[in-house]
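Honest question from a wet-lab person: if I give you the sequences of every part of a complex, can you actually get the arrangement of the whole thing, not just the pieces? Trying it with mine:
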Amino acid sequence: MISAAGIATTRGNLRNISLLAEPGKVLALMGPNGSGKSTLLHVLAGDLAPIAGEVQLLSRPLSAWNRTALAMQRAVLPQASQVAFPVRVCDLVGIGRLPYRGRARGADRRAVAESLAAVGLAPLADALYHRLSGGEKQRVQLARVLAQIWQPQEDTAPRLLLLDEPTNNLDPAQRLAVMECVQSLARRGLAIVAVLHDLSEALRFADDGLMLRDGRVLAQGPIHDVLTPDLIAAAFDVTAAIVVGNGHPAVVTMISGQ
Amino acid sequence: MPALETARTRRRWHIVMALGILASLATLLAVGVGPLDVIPLDILGWALHLPLGEPLSDLQQSVIFDIRLPRVVMALLAGIGLAVSGCLTQSLFRNPLADPGLIGVSSGAALAAAVTIVLAEHLPIWFFHLGPFALPMAAAIGALLATFAILRLADLAGGEATIVLLLAGIGIGILAEVGIGFLIFISNEQELRDLTFWRMGSLAGNGWAQTAIVSIPVFIIAIFAWRIAPALNALSLGDDVAGHLGIPVASLQRGIVIAVAAAIGAIVAFSGMIGFLGLVAPHLARLLVGQDHRWLVPASALIGCVIMAFGDLVTRIAVAPAELPIGLVTGALGGPVFLFLLVRQMRHGTT
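Yes, you can. This is the full assembly:
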């Protein structure tokens, strides 16, 4: 789906990063603050051109895509979404259909309805965005980026979703709702790359992981191989343990030396 | 959802049509009322070549065609230009309180126009070969410089925070006012009268030539805003979001800045500073048709027409035979709306 080879940047100081994200899977980008996670996501989104290396989407260099075609193939959920004006949920999600301007209107309507259904917010289609809770707002934003890459059944080319800390500032129930949504989207065939801060969340919902430290890859591969106590210790300078509760693994961290 | 969707579309059509009818009535009234009253029905018959009402006398025809009509058309053009500029500025700055007058764009235009008037004899001679275009050109350049200065200042201050943009705009506006004040100080009697006219806004003395000049940038900005309406919806969610939707954000923003500067420049050059219309019209339109720019832009333009046509009427009959500056009328309407918006924004974090 999307692959990067030998990426280096000046901003964020990334060095020699290669990765591959595949349809049907969630790839978690992790690492301490300032390790370059968000920069890497910007490079994958095409916002930031690397000084070395290349990103390919569907085997074509990112720089060779035209804006509209790229917008139909990959969508990006920013960390914080600001909506300056009052707007209804369905209208906000409909903004995701901008790249398809001048095409069939019916497809737009279906895309909005199905995207809202996919995040479990179909009943709120006519609600005002500003009245929603933080978790609902984030799921509406998720529906907006879904609508952007929504495809009719007969089109089977895979789509890419890039998420920048999708559970930032949400309470535990809201985080779960958003992450379960993300996981189910991957199961439907989307390739998802997400910057995740919460290691337990990554362990539970991601399939693959990439651990960054100081702009370099510390570890990458299946999530259970990346989030080991040793590697977490090496990345964050903490002592870590993996515990299991109700069948779900979680990461517990302690300050080193205690 | 589709049923609800069509109901809302129908409601929006009704609102836009009602606004269109209101604007037409206001226009007829503004053309008819004055020292020489003409019954609207008679005007309609004359204008449409239909056997409606009484035929107009030669005097009535000349008053209407040569004096009132160009002035009312100018009012309508200013209404459309200011309202659409308001829509675009609010999208650009992502703040419902942004208004070309408030953020210093109009002041920049007025300063450039004032410089052209007062320092006329010191300006290079080629400038006056532009003829009637000299003043609007100067005003447009002033508006453009003010806008770029605001964007640059906000960039230096870290960019994203819209409050910085607004404050930078207010600062630029104050500086421009200082410049105008200085020019007033050094100007002679005649120049002083001209300058006062600029600062308060007036539609008086506009004929068909001036109207034709203003119609060009107003026509351009209206078409432009209509065409980019869907992109404006995306832009209101943030530059990065718009970029990820495939919009060439930087060139779109440049286009908006230039279109607004040209329209404001031309309007300020011939009607002076007509404050707050760019704030009030889009806000009223937003209450009526919502935030979707495909409806917001035309509804704002029509509301701009209604306010300006009625405003022109008020300026002429309120203190007849003298005339109020139109800027006072729109300001009296816009000031309270602005304060109301401010309080609402502070209380709800949004408007």
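Two things worth pointing out. Chain A touches chain B at residues 45, 47, 67-68, 70-72, 75-76, 78, 81-88, 90-92, 95-96, 98-99, 101, 109, 112-113, 125-126, 130, 148 (CB under 8 Å). The radius of gyration of chain A is 18 Å.
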